[in-house]
What does this fold into?
Amino acid sequence: MNAIRNPLAIELGNLTQFEYLALNSPLNLSDGHARQELTPNQARIIEELPSLWTDAVKRPVSEVEADALSAFFGLLGQHHYPIAEGRVLSCYSSSVAMEIFARSLAGVSGSIGLVHPTFDNIPDILRGVGLKLVPIEEDALHGGDLDPELLRGVGAIFITTPNNPTGRVVSRERLRRLADECAQHDVVLALDTCFRGFDTDAHYDHYAVLEASGCRWVVIEDTGKLWPTLELKIGWLVSAAHVGLPLAKVYSDILLGVSPLVMSMVRRFCEDAAEGGLAELHEFIAGNRAMLRTTLANVPGVEFLDPFSRTSVERIGIGSRSNLAVWSALREHNVFALPCQKFYWNNPDKGEGILRIALARPPSALAAGAAALRAVLSEA
It folds into this structure.
């Protein structure tokens, strides 16, 4: 275990680069994508793919898409999502939706307020189009009103809810106040809700709140975190009627649309989730979280930093240990987790001593990874 005692001689890249290293490991506890086994009902949906293909060929794409939208937004309580043409744009992934939003905003504004911490591909994409980032600390976001000086200096504020990696959810009342503040300052309110499906506290109708506020808003939705569909997924970019951003133009610069086969598959997964599959997923993630916490219980210096999180990731404080050194020692066991410096995009030192563990994994893989982590931490 020399790696745990010596400085790690690697440059900290972005979080996705760390996730790439883990893709071929059976003990990949790194990325937040769904990699658990299919349930029996979900496996039957995969067996339906030939008939879904045949059906998608026969039907207008707009009809297939409307069915997928109705199933997804209805599943998660978003009954007031806009159905007008051009207000819900289907993308290959939430990252593509993010890129479209970022490019659209950069054409009309030079800066954006961004929650801190959050997954680092968000600040990377925003910076990549030339936007200046202004940090909004998570405690301040969930506390009182935002700083008026901040709101006067940005074109948008961007919030992840539930947040990745902390799992914190913006409540209905807080969203209403944030939307009012953005309306008062003519600032776009942008939400990333990619982990919404895991937490019923995030299932109140965000679109009802946003539409009633009168603010300009954008929401990014995602199916890729919920179900193990081998990266076949949809990211939706949803916007206010008067958003004032060239979203449709930038969208047309990047893609034509999403495969109707994928839309049909997503519809069927949503239907299964509505019939009990979502509750089953919640129970599965809760069981994996409990297993991880039990395995690491009583390890000196270990803390579970987000005791109320329901998302499919878990932050673990490891005390004074170097998280990069622990990552390196875990790699010797072919186990991969995420060091958290890059989540703290404005102050990476705040992520020192914190790892993020993905929970959407087969229980046997998570158990083996947790046992290896306990052994590494116990020797540190």
